[in-house]
From TrEMBL:
<dbReference type="InterPro" id="IPR001816">
    <property type="entry name" value="Transl_elong_EFTs/EF1B"/>
</dbReference>
<dbReference type="InterPro" id="IPR009060">
    <property type="entry name" value="UBA-like_sf"/>
</dbReference>
<protein>
    <recommendedName>
        <fullName>Elongation factor Ts</fullName>
    </recommendedName>
</protein>
<keyword id="KW-0963">Cytoplasm</keyword>
<keyword id="KW-0251">Elongation factor</keyword>
<feature type="region of interest" description="Involved in Mg(2+) ion dislocation from EF-Tu">
    <location>
        <begin position="80"/>
        <end position="83"/>
    </location>
</feature>
<comment type="function">
    <text>Associates with the EF-Tu.GDP complex and induces the exchange of GDP to GTP. It remains bound to the aminoacyl-tRNA.EF-Tu.GTP complex up to the GTP hydrolysis stage on the ribosome.</text>
</comment>
<dbReference type="GO" id="GO:0005737">
    <property type="term" value="C:cytoplasm"/>
</dbReference>
<dbReference type="InterPro" id="IPR036402">
    <property type="entry name" value="EF-Ts_dimer_sf"/>
</dbReference>
<keyword id="KW-0648">Protein biosynthesis</keyword>
<dbReference type="Pfam" id="PF00889">
    <property type="entry name" value="EF_TS"/>
</dbReference>
<dbReference type="InterPro" id="IPR018101">
    <property type="entry name" value="Transl_elong_Ts_CS"/>
</dbReference>
<comment type="similarity">
    <text>Belongs to the EF-Ts family.</text>
</comment>
<dbReference type="InterPro" id="IPR014039">
    <property type="entry name" value="Transl_elong_EFTs/EF1B_dimer"/>
</dbReference>
<dbReference type="GO" id="GO:0003746">
    <property type="term" value="F:translation elongation factor activity"/>
</dbReference>
<feature type="domain" description="Translation elongation factor EFTs/EF1B dimerisation">
    <location>
        <begin position="71"/>
        <end position="273"/>
    </location>
</feature>
Length: 292
């Protein structure tokens, strides 16, 4: 049996919203497996939804550039938010983003070799690192193409902490920007229900079925209840089915259709998602230095 540490219990409690004893019981039942423990809590009705808590923010900013029928979303990282707010960092971010949009490199490695006035993008990043005193790095980017009749919608939230880029078939740029603002705020996982894998659907259905049975619902209506919960779940994670933030009486797809358009694609970047950031105790750090 796996050792259930206090930290593991607290991590599950934070992720699920469950109480300490419920979290510990779930971990014991799942032999310390966090994902299985979350499923256990959901089946028991203790955790109603899996909250993402494994995304620890690194610092930096995102940027979007449009060059004709090409657009790009870029994330540039720094070690602190102080440097991310500095002029040298912001200038480098804009320059790199424009270069990537214009040259369409295949990946980050190719982007780093793009020529600049001072050598390459990599040379410029080294120069910015020297100016700011912190490592500045190009983490990722995504190029998006559109047809002549399509419209890009670009939106940066919190000064670039979150970037959203949307492509609509038809409609207009203002509508596309409205949808980009929605994507930034609500963070959909998929465009439509058809984009959700069968494995994910089967997994969620099994969880909802077990949860409904544990609530003591009559067997003859369990399937109907599960169907309703699946529909609600899909309407929460799929952009097309989500209630539009600026008018909850219609879905995003309905809003776009009312403007003569159709959803085609979206990209959403949030600074630092998926990056483990080292947490330090400043007081302990200073004390350790003084006692050397």
């Amino acid at each position: 049996m796996a050792e259930i540490s206090a930290k593991l219990v607290m991590d599950l409690r934070k992720k699920s919203g469950a109480g300490i004893m419920d979290a510990k019981k779930a971990l014991v039942a799942s032999d310390g497996d966090m994902d299985k423990a979350m499923d256990y809590l959901r089946e028991k009705g203790i955790a109603k939804a899996a909250k993402k808590s494994d995304r620890i923010a690194a610092e930096g900013l995102t940027e979007i550039a449009v060059d004709g029928n090409t657009a790009v979303v870029v994330e540039l990282n720094s070690e602190t938010d102080f440097v991310a707010a500095s002029d040298p960092f912001k200038e480098e971010l804009k320059d790199v983003t424009a270069l990537i949009a214009a040259n369409k490199p295949a990946d980050v490695e190719a982007a780093l070799q793009l020529p600049t006035a001072n050598g390459t993008v990599n040379d410029d990043l080294i120069s910015t690192t020297q100016k700011t005193g912190e490592k500045v790095s190009l983490r990722r980017f995504e190029l998006v193409e559109k047809a002549d009749g399509d419209n890009f919608g670009a939106y940066l939230h919190q000064g670039g902490r979150i970037a959203a880029l949307v492509v609509l078939e038809g409609a207009d740029e203002a509508t596309a920007k409205d949808v980009a603002m929605h994507v930034a705020a609500i963070n959909p996982e998929f465009m439509t229900r058809e984009d959700v894998s069968q494995e994910r659907l089967d997994h969620e259905k099994a969880i909802f079925t077990e949860e409904t049975l544990n609530e003591g619902k009559p067997a003859n209506i369990v399937e109907k209840i599960v169907e309703g919960r699946m529909n609600k779940f899909l309407s929460q994670i799929c952009l097309a089915d989500q209630d539009f933030v600026k008018d909850s009486d219609m879905t995003v797809a309905e809003y776009v259709a009312s403007k003569g358009g159709k959803l085609k694609s979206f990209v959403r970047y949030e600074v630092g998602e998926g990056i483990e950031k080292k947490v330090t105790n400043l007081a302990e750090e200073i004390s350790a230095q003084l006692n050397k």
